[in-house]
Amino acid sequence: MVELQMSEEVRALLGPEGLARAAEVSLADGRCVACSRPLDGTVHMVVRTNGSFTHVVYVHAGCGPSEVIQMGPDFAPATPADGYDMTMTAAVLDHGGADLPVLVAETVGKAYIVNDGPGELTNVVASHLLGQGFHLVNRLRQAPPQVAEWVGVLLLGHGPAGEDGLLVLDPDGGQFYTGAVDLPDGWLTQAARYGWAVLYVGNAGGLHPRAHDAKATARALRTAAQAGQLVGARIAVGTPGPAQA
Ligand SMILES: [Zn+2]
Q1: Cα of 204 from ligand 1 centre, angstroms
Q2: Contacts by 188-195 with C-beta closer than 8 Å and gap 24+?
Q3: Number of independent structural domains in the chain
Q4: Is 54 a domain residue?
């Protein structure tokens, strides 16, 4: 169980919108930036900012205070390829009558670009992806357009404990995501049928990647989409060939 605490100076800097965004963050798989151990117990929010870019990170209460750290002018957003901490949830979700294979990536730590002072915070990952051809998603009626050269590679049964793995590569070969994925029944069949999956990225409010609760996933995505917090695209997915009968 994680309880998040913020100091007054952190609250003041983030403003109401920033606080609402912070409350959506999943800390379930997060790590303390001070000691690198998993977050648990009371967790302090730390904001690093240079006025135009703001990065929100988390530490154990015993590892440091909740504070605002002023950074130099060269403090800048890292691209997702530089390794954001992410969770990946797979689901098969109805889009206007079609059951589509879906991947939902949520960043654990949040980084924001400050557009027009406090209250206008844009998620760095989302804004990076919009620049890469992803679309802002308003509803789940139909799949967003495909982005060229993005590819998801499934590594079935090749994780450290024999679990399934997923690698998502951007057009420059950068690793947008590398880690475990827990595929629900029917996901591979639909991915093989279409040759692509819908990759959604945003603040879906802390999904449970192993719960396989398609209704809860769809609900969280709709909420994120309505809040303007979801981007998406179809990406090519390589799946293993059909099993020999
Ligand atoms: Zn710590």
Answers
A1: 25
A2: 188/101, 188/154, 188/239, 188/240, 190/92, 190/99, 190/100, 190/101, 191/101, 191/154, 191/237, 191/239, 192/239, 192/242, 194/100, 194/101, 195/236, 195/237
A3: 2
A4: yes
